[in-house]
Amino acid sequence: MIIDAHAHLCPKPYGSVEHYLSQLDLSGIKQGLVCPGGMVDVRRLGEFTSGRRQADPIPCNDYIQQAVLAHPGLAAVACLDPRLPHAPEALEEWVSRGFRGLLVSPLVHPFSFLDECVAALAALCGERDIPLVSHTGFRPGVTPGDFIQLARRFPRTCFLLEHMGGLQADMDVVDAAASLDNLFLETSLGTFLRLQETVKKTGASKIVFGSEFPMSHPGLELKKICLLPVSEAERDLILGANVQRLFHLH
Q1: Contact yes or no for 151/159 (Cβ under 8 A)
Q2: Using one digit for the tens of pLDDT, what is the confidence trace for 69-82?
Q3: How many domains does the chain have?
Q4: CA distance linking residue 81 with residue 79, whole number of Å
Q5: Using one digit for the tens of pLDDT, what is the confidence trace for 159-202?
Q6: Spatial CB neighbours of 111, under 8 Å, sequence gap ≥ 6
Q7: Which domain, by its residues, includes 26?
Q8: Of 4, 168, 202, 225, which is the most exposed, with the fewest CB atoms less than 10 Å away?
């Protein structure tokens, strides 16, 4: 079983559920874990990272729910702004609707992983047995080291770090994933060499396959996993079994 654990959908042609499903079909993938996209237009990402353009702060969780209800092969992850006073109540509501995890986005919402509002959500994720998912950034408060610190603070919560922490993480994130039971790494946009070295260090049980649709193609990201010099059992863990267990997928 192959499950794409990292796709962003939005009601725009480049990120629509129909476009995503067509790419999954071309890739031979039947299941995907989807979360809100479109808050940042990834076709013009440099304008957002440089501050020339501002992100849309409102995640399209409703669109994600509609996509999942219409397509049984998809499962949902909610995105929330941790700074909003009602964020814990909103998370409870989305979980009650069948959402399987929480995404926080430091590129969209200017929080810190060290903020108490993030801590409250991390604790709630542990109580509800759902993972907290995020990427990291270059500004203080959202570095790979800050994410590791959050994972250490909440050992009962599972944390999934997108893009294996990014190039700036060096080996810190890899070392942390190897030593922390609750920290997992997602593969999208990573170089093959970094992916290969990460699997050697952490073992296949800590790695989750993802595509980062629409920025990348599920088939392209899948090819990297297929080329890894690992056993079929290890490949099965990376491609589906790990995410199935983390997000309680059927």
Answers
A1: yes
A2: 999 999 999 999 99
A3: 1
A4: 7
A5: 999 999 886 556 899 999 999 999 999 999 989 999 999 999 99
A6: 81, 82, 83, 104, 117, 118, 141, 142
A7: 3-246
A8: 168
pTM: 0.96
Residue 186, token pair as written in the block: 């997602």
pLDDT in tens, 50-108: 888 888 999 999 999 999 999 999 999 999 999 999 999 999 999 999 999 999 999 99
SS (H, E, C) the chain: CCEEEEEEECCCHHHCHHHHHHHHHHHCCCEEEEEECCCCCHHHHHHHHCCCCCCCCCCCHHHHHHHHHHCCCEEECEECCCCCCCHHHHHHHHHHCCCCCEECCCCCCCCCCCCHHHHHHHHHHHHHCCCEEECCCCCCCCCHHHHHHHHHHCCCCCEEEHHHHCHHHCCHHHHHHHHCCCEEEECCCCCHHHHHHHHHHHCHHHEECCCCECCCCHHHHHHHHHHCCCCHHHHHHHHHHHHHHHCCCC
d(CA 186, CA 132): 12
- What's the one-letter identity of residue 38? G
